Amino acid sequence: MSERCLLYYITDRRQFASDQASQRKALLAKIAEAARTGVDYIQLREKDLTTRELEKLAHEAVALVRENSASTRILINSRTDVALASGADGVHLPAEDISPQEVKSIWKMSDAQITKRSNTPILAVSCHSPEDISRAAVGGADFAVLAPIFEKRGAPDVGAAGLDALRNLGEIGIPVLALGGITLENAPACLDAGAEGVAGIRLFQENKIEDVVRKLR
Length: 217
Prior knowledge:
alpha/beta
């Protein structure tokens, strides 16, 4: 089992009940809670928003993380431009997206004085096989997210990889986090199988994050 379970909160404001304004308010409160209670990474994954809307939300989310934690890092899903403009810590790259090397090149060429960000982005990559993870590691990713381990909501035709996928990783060289149907009950099994942490939407949005952090650490 990993000595310290890495925790990765992936956002989805649409899973909060009520109108759009209330969903946004609930999301920002949950981001602040995640930072305050010691979650390692937060991925802003609001893919339905326009660029302008996403950038505005990202600015607010980054500010909340900075106010509530000196260690939590916030990543933007796919959008390197929004990550740079908002001062986020890095980018989460979906499978088949541009490579980590390309993101690093873009990041390096940007103006640090304008973007107010770190010179070195944190890069995560979505993976579905050990081969994907190996490519991510070679490409310079900081960590990989392997999914789905147990299930994928709304996609019953997508087969679950199961715990064996975590047991057969070998020496990858970067941390691998488990995603897909992760709960407080099955997360320890993921860690025992070889994951260095867990990621999720419902795990954090449907629970008090302080309880998640305490139980998994």
